[in-house]
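Retro notes (design track)

What went well: tokenization of the new backbones is finally stable.
What didn't: we kept losing track of which sequence belonged to which structure.
Fix going forward: every design gets posted as structure first, then sequence, in one message. First example under the new rule, 347 residues:
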């Protein structure tokens, strides 16, 4: 008769084990093998499961103190920490009572919750600093510096900078929210990337000249048509050029190039590649995997001094994902950086 119940738990899409009244595991499915290890059938549940909170939950049901109990089970799978919601419930088999223990993977929910908490904490931190500065200067201007014109001008300049910082943060937050909400909707309107690159370069050339850099375009003479959202693609190119100018070195070049490929390996088809390269200080490649996370900065102090919000590359990543493209980052400390966006031509 136990084989009948074994076939049922084998069909269950969750890791499941059965614990008998003799406190030994009498059955488990393949998913439980993957999670807990094969060969635990017949063993006492204490020696097989080990985590105290899980053992306590099973014991409460075994001893009749509860019909069911819930707890958390922590595991590591493929070098990733995972979290399972566990339900231990009393059931009745024809052979007698037993405890059915099921494991529901809640890792994604836990990670989403942590991301929300981190996001709120980061936004609060980013806004707190300029707000504190503004409130302090307002209080000073109302008091000791009320009649000091030189101090008033200096404070107003700083207040304007801090207000601009908050404005950029709110703008980028709204932009990120809008991009994320549209990420699953692939745009189809034909867009000329070459024209967008020329437009972005024209807008940012004064900034490059002010920083003592030359902004060089190549491959933009002929049209480069891709299906896309023109405003968002312009935002990608502008963000990457602006970052290259911010983190480049005076007297160097920022190069923006477009290339066309009939068989791009990243896309496995026809594609247009936009590359923005600078001759700046570069950074340790160890940062690359996290560079597109919200509010992640390689050099936090320098980024803030330059007016960065820590959201630019996160926005770029989501726009690239919406266009079914690929973002590649290459850098070497002291040798500059290259940001490459590959966009498919075919819809």
């Amino acid at each position: 008769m136990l084989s009948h119940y074994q076939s049922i738990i084998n069909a269950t899409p969750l890791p499941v084990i059965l614990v008998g009244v003799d406190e030994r595991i009498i059955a488990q499915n393949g998913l439980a093998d993957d999670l807990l290890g094969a060969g635990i059938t017949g063993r006492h549940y204490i020696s097989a499961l080990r985590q105290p909170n899980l053992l306590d939950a099973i014991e409460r049901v075994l001893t009749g103190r509860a019909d069911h109990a819930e707890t958390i089970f922590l595991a590591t799978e493929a070098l990733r920490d995972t979290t399972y919601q566990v339900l231990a419930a009393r059931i009745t088999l024809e052979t007698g009572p037993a405890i059915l223990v099921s494991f529901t993977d809640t890792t994604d929910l836990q990670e989403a919750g942590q991301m929300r908490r981190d996001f709120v904490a980061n936004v609060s931190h980013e806004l707190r600093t300029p707000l504190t500065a503004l409130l302090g200067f307002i209080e000073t201007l109302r008091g000791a510096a009320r009649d000091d014109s030189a101090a008033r001008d200096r404070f107003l300049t700083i207040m304007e900078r801090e207000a601009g910082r908050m404005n950029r943060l709110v703008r980028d937050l709204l932009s990120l929210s809008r991009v994320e909400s549209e990420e699953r909707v692939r745009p189809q309107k034909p867009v000329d990337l070459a024209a967008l690159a020329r437009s972005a370069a024209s807008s940012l050339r004064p900034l490059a000249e002010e920083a003592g850099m030359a902004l060089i375009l190549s491959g933009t003479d002929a049209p480069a048509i891709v299906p896309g959202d023109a405003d968002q693609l312009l935002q990608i190119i502008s963000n990457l050029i602006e970052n290259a100018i911010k983190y480049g070195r005076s007297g160097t070049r920022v190069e923006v190039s477009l290339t066309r490929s009939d068989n791009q390996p990243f896309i496995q088809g026809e594609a247009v590649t936009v590359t923005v390269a600078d001759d700046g200080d570069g950074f340790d490649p160890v940062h690359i995997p996290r560079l597109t996370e919200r509010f992640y900065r390689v050099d936090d102090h320098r980024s803030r001094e330059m007016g960065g919000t820590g959201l630019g590359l996160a926005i770029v990543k989501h726009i690239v994902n919406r266009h079914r493209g690929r973002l590649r980052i290459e850098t070497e400390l002291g040798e500059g950086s290259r940001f490459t966006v590959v966009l498919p031509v075919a819809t």
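Added context from the reviewer: The chain has a mean pLDDT of 86.
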